[in-house]
Amino acid sequence: MQKIVNKDKLNNLANEIWKSAERLRGKFKAYEYQSVILPMIVIRRLECVLLRWRQDQADEIAGKRPELREEEILDMVKKLECRAKKAPLFNTTDWTLEKICEEDPSLRKTHFKEYLNGFSENVQEIIDHFHYRDVIDRMVKNSRLSPILNQYANEALGPEALSNLEMGYVYEELLRRFSEQSGEEAGEHFTPREVIRLMVELLEIPLPEKHISVYDPACGTGGMLTVAKEYLYERAGNESEQSNVRQFVTLHGHELSPGNYAICKADMLIKEEDAAICFGNSLIPDSPNSPEPGDQLAKPGHKFDYMLSNPPFGVTWGGKDGYADEAGKLSTTRYRAGMPRTNDGAFLFLQTMLAKMKPADKGGSRMAIIFNGSPLSNGDCGSGESEIRRWILENDWLDAIVMLPDQLFYNTGIFTYIWLLTNNKPESHKDRVMLIDGRSCFEKEPKSFGNKRNRLTIQNMADIKSFYQKGWEQGDDNPKVKIFKTKDFAYHKVSVVFWQTDDNDEPAYVTEPFSKALTPANMKKEQEFYDSDLEFSIALASMKGIADIDFTLTPDQTFAKVFEKAVKEAFKLEIKGLTTGMKTAGEKTRAVKKFIRELKKEVVYTHRHYVTDTEYIPYGENIEAFLKREIEKPLIRWADSPQLGYEILPNRYFYKYVPPKPADALLKEFWDLEEEAAGLLKGLVE
């Protein structure tokens, strides 16, 4: 069963921690608060783990050898810790945060750094990614080291006081507040544990009897990975099954934020989880020449059984601060289906996960990923997004999409969607996609966490999982489920030219100025477009005279020749005077062409009133019959796009028309409100 968390307790703890952040006001910028507070929380939590381990070891030794003095027992524990390295982490010093606070305040910086330097290498990496030693110097300079140390020296942050689930909520609430203070965009958000749990439930990960790998390309503080393994532990019915979970399930992830990476590594360390968490950008190649670490899990052997992720929404990956050039190096391999627009990298994460699927003949892979609405329909036919959707659907990898309630996340209230994908569909799922409307499956939060005002209960999750499992047989019998063929999301983008009609429904003509330059290329385009006679009326003016010329240009004529002939006829006396005395035909020709070129021209032309339009036609429709039915004008020509477009519009498929309230009901509501307002005003006066 899903663990219940006491959010009042967690909010109180977050508030207490937040007070320490507020002590930094005036000494640190708002965006720097988390660089001071979060590392201290992690250090204290690690210390609690280590102190608990030391106490357990001491109790065990004392039970076996009661004749030993306390000093001897502590010495034996220290040897076990540092020499045998049996602890998940160790510290070679005798310092604790409490002891540091008890010593001379003028030496606290020295003692604190000694303490940090005494930690084992796995903790050193965490401290280094927080860049905490540099932060300590600033804390000392601004007289903030002692207050912060005093606050956390005895804070109950160990696993016995706060489970990993509860600690995750505290981390995320603090990160939410820090991001609000620093003005970060809502794209930086954190996934509520019940949403992760639903994703894991929908992945249907079996209890392992052999190796199972789980991967997240944007793992943040590690919530997706840890919840996946916790789910399997909960399902394990006996010690043997639990042992299989510990032995066979491996966790793998990438994280680009140094702070989140450090928190994730610390969390894995506390759980004694041997996870492969890599620091870097999973969307680009890992190369010594890259501006930042890239995908370190990109070798051919790096394929995963289950993948889940909640990549940041709407994050720009192009421009001078992006990594478009580095991502472009994978455009013919990992991203060969298409490159999405540079202000939303969501599909880069999905393609990265798809590139890490195991072959279907070796069991294949299943994945769950959270998106906002953009990947469903952004991008026209032929765009990067549409081509990626086409690639996914035509390969029959998309299994289902779950529409989630809004206001589930801490930093954004938007609607979100879980995409389920696999390259090894069962027969009953092949060439089909299920859409699930889970928007009403929620309860209100008793107390909101930022923008998180709704939550998924155990029953809500069970309902959505049931919709998914039973929906393949029930189909449209369940109003919350709709099943489509993969081609149902496809459409033709058809460019069409039709002949507009006038008020009498007769083919219309238009007389208008010709505003383009009279170049051969422009005229050729006009003739090709209209493919019919064009009537020209051109007012001309030279240095000595004016003339009006009119002519009809047929589709097979060349404008320059017809125009030149008409000009020569209209200005024959002036041209004759211009060329008199010229000796060669070439000289005369050049003079005439220059004369024509320098004429002032006002051009009006009459043509058929053709209209260019674009029609989006569902796949399977007869295109010509559709155009005749929908346009009801004389069709001149049409052309289909070279490939199908794809879009998924869940809101449309589940839309139900709700008629507006009758006028008398609205009027009654208005008068009821008027009466209520009058009563309130009367109460204020009295």
TrEMBL record:
A biological process from GO: DNA restriction-modification system
Ranges for domain DNA methylase adenine-specific: 167-471
SUPFAM superfamilies: S-adenosyl-L-methionine-dependent methyltransferases
Gene3D superfamilies: 1.20.1260.30, Vaccinia Virus protein VP39
Top-level class of the enzyme under EC nomenclature: transferase
UniProt keyword Transport, yes or no: no
EC number: 2.1.1.72
Annotated InterPro entries: D12N6_MeTrfase_N, DNA_Adenine_Mtase, DNA_methylase_A-5, DNA_methylase_N6_adenine_CS, SAM-dependent_MTases_sf, T1MK-like_N_sf
GO molecular function, one term: DNA binding
Designated name of the protein: site-specific DNA-methyltransferase (adenine-specific)
